[in-house]
Amino acid sequence: MRSASVTRKTKETKITAEVNLDGGSVNLSTGIGFFDHMLTAFAVHGGFGLQLHAEGDLFVDCHHTVEDTGIVLGQTFAKALGDKGDIARYGSFYIPMDEALAFTSLDISGRPFLVFHADFQQERVGNFDTCMTEEFLRAFAYHAGITLHCSVLYGSNAHHEIEAIFKSLGHALQQATALREGTLSTKGVL
Fold it and tell me: What dotted CATH number matches 3-177?
């Protein structure tokens, strides 16, 4: 079973996550309604089982909770993937969401990097600062060991644009974590 759990506690947040790459129930709570919606979309579209509970200093703002959730989720995915052998490694996916179109391409390479292109016209969706989308993705990519490229090609509604990003990330990860025989690398290891 390709699953793992991680708990991280700081003076700003306490987060526990459990991921099953091969499916399962989705149950999460971060205290940020829109972020819960995005993480649910990510897990459902990726076909991942995800249990996540976050408590953070939301009286400050959503920054610490969102970024630390990215850290913990990235660590959990890295742990579930183990040595990254026997996976497809690469994944790419477009998601249209009404007027918006987003694209994600990734490589589970062990070489973390983020390229992010989006220009949100709204600063907030609910109690989620739209700029935190990039912060979450950076934390996730760096702690999962993923080269991650995410772009909103066009759109005007930040809710649609961000949701398309999270859904495309889920689909691209589903492709990349799919089982295959042997390590997809000329080096023989990732």
Answer: 3.30.230.40
